[in-house]
Amino acid sequence: MKKPFLIGAIGGTFGLFAALALILTSSSNDFTLSGIQAALFSSMGLMGAALSSREPRFSGWMLLSSAVWILITAPIAGTLSILFLYAPAIVLLAAAGLLALIEQEPEEEAL
Question: Which residues contact 36 (CB under 8 A, 6 or more apart)?
């Protein structure tokens, strides 16, 4: 099992759990919207982690963009306090994305 897959899967799972916790305990529509957006981008991070063994470059960009978009959706609710809730997911998804981008492309066999 490769490192980008494992780290990305853990980060995406943390993001989904944090988003679910925010959705279930939200007191306003802005918090709910931020939680839904974070859940969507965390699932994109999980998809990027699943692709990391076959397409490391593409999955790296998916993982990095999901981390950035989760970072952007946190202040939508008008407070930066929920950024601390998403911080582990953001850090893990960004680290997995960087590891996937640094990783060498698998060479295809010549026929």
Answer: 19, 23
How many domains is the chain partitioned into structurally?
Answer: 1
108 located within any domain: no
Confidence of residue 15 (pLDDT cuts 50, 70, 90): very high
Asked whether the beta carbons of 48 and 97 are under 8 A apart, the reply is: yes
Range of the domain at 36: 3-102
80-97 core/surface letters (b: 16 or more CB in 10 A; e: else): eebeebbeebbebbbbbb
**pLDDT tens digits, residue range 40-75?**
999 999 999 999 888 889 999 999 999 999 998 888
